[in-house]
Amino acid sequence: MAADNTPQAPPAETGHSARAKPVATGLGLLLPSLWIIGLTLALVAVGLGAGYGALTTEAGSRWLLHKLPYIQVDGFRGALLGERWQAQRLVYSWAKGQSTLTLEEVDAQGLRWAWRGLSPELASAPKAWGALHAKSLTVSKATLRNAPASGQAPKLPDSLALPLQIEIDAVTLGEFQIDALAPVQQLAAQGLVLDSRSGQRWRVQGIQGQWWGLVMDGSASLAHQAPHSASAQASLRPLQDGDSPRWAAVVRAEGPFEQLDVTATLRGLPQTGPGVANAAPSLDLSAQVLPLKTWPLGLLNLKTEALDLNALQAQAPRTSLNGTAEIASRGLNAPVTARVQLANAAPGRWDQGRLPVAQVSIDLAGRVDQRNQVTAPRLELLLADAPGSAGAAGRVTGRADWRGHILTLDTQLLDVQPQRLDQRAAGMRLSGPVAVSISGLASPDPAAKPAPTPWQAKLKLDLEGLLLNLAKGNSPPVKLQLEATASAARVDVSQASAKTGAATATSAAACNVRPALNGRWPARVHCRGLTPPTGCLASQGRRGGRARIACRVNGNLMCACRPTVFACCKPRP
Hints:
The protein is mainly β. Among the domains are: about 20-150 and about 160-225, no CATH class; about 420-570, no CATH class. About 5% of the residues lie in helices and about 50% in strands. The chain has helices at about 30-50, 60-65, 310, 420, 565-570, and strands at about 70-75, 75-80, 85-95, 100-110, 110-115, 130-145, 165-180, 185-195, 200-210, 215-225, 230-240, 245-255, 260-270, 280-290, 295-305, 320-330, 335-345, 355-365, 370-385, 395-405, 405-415, 430-440, 455-465, 475-485, 490-500, 505-515, 525-530, 550, 560-565. The protein has a 27-stranded mixed sheet that branches. The radius of gyration is 30 Å and the shape is elongated. The protein starts with about 30 loop residues before the first helix and ends in a 5-residue tail after the last helix.
């Protein structure tokens, strides 16, 4: 890393490549430790009121834990004011039981207590009546379940100073799960200090963890007096790349906690390929984050150059994205607007592992007081199968509406050529409406409950165009109609028809999609109800020719079909 902490392109894979900094998250990673510390503080405060001796024995500690409200402890061993205590399970609830923090296999070791009047180290902290130093705190799993949002923004008190000085040398958390978000794995911190003396800050060093295939490394600090100035920095890199990452990023947050200025910078190794030789991917982001507001995002500006999605996520297609994204929010009752403009310098077909989109333009709109709804009044995609051919494979325009757990898209295809998007598709040029509705999605409101039902998609299309790649000079018209529903386990085609000239094919099918026994794709697809084309001889090769539809499902769940039925079906004599 450079001296100014701006990430440089990672070094090439050589024997002396410097190790890239792992990824960090920021203030959010303090949550589990702060909750654990808060619980410890509550236990000690109540315990001292009940009598010091009750906390120095296992029997007295168990009796006290059983009497405390909001806390449930199972399998407790040791003494709260001893050198070590353990618990199989600890549950803390608040907000009338709607919010809970569950800790499993808790182990606090090397506890050392100091009290005012008996320890000179508390002389400089006039409001502190005690101090706790611990060598380690280990939790195998923490699960945080939040109550539904009340609609009221929280507010920090002027002072967060605690009457107990706390220092923990090492905090280890095997897994941290927040609601339905992907869990953070192997979360750890080296040096957690809650220093409530005047002029001092709460701080945590050496934060590390793994999340979404990323390795995290960072630090954070927070002033316990208003305006609670905060500072956090984090670095991140792909977990799978080991010590020679394809890219590295740095995220920083500075300012009062109620209004943070956030910047992020990503740099990567140069790409090679058609139209992108020696192009080094980069991404720069600046945003104003309002953590305590109902709508936490004020402004956002993002710029990217030669960004490869495959470098960020192994299952994503290879890209070279250049463009900008801007988000502006002006108040609770004012609309939130966003504009995304992206150009892909390396478009290509799906079967090549690329993205067959050359340009993307999207306008988004929403409201802070209606966070469960986001609309895209305008979207446009120019399709292409090679650099420099934007729109050559067709164009898609339309609008989208995301309300609660349902996303609907109403789009119009213009001269779309499926075979240029994926070589395994039929050679056609198609235009017409395509409507898609997907239910069971996460809501755009981050505070909303999970979807009550699994995802399900509905598709309806009515396309007209021409057949291509037939005999020279012969491009007969074709009309396609389809109505279908799909889920993770089943596909139902209620109506499917294709017509070209005097030949017509109709079909209805129900397919059960089941993964292989090892839980990995490719899937086993069992279909019933497929009917031969009306008026055609299917798979016989006599007089009317033959009809063949060869489909398979690959690891990306993409059906690769070659409906040669359109080319070889002929009416019966």
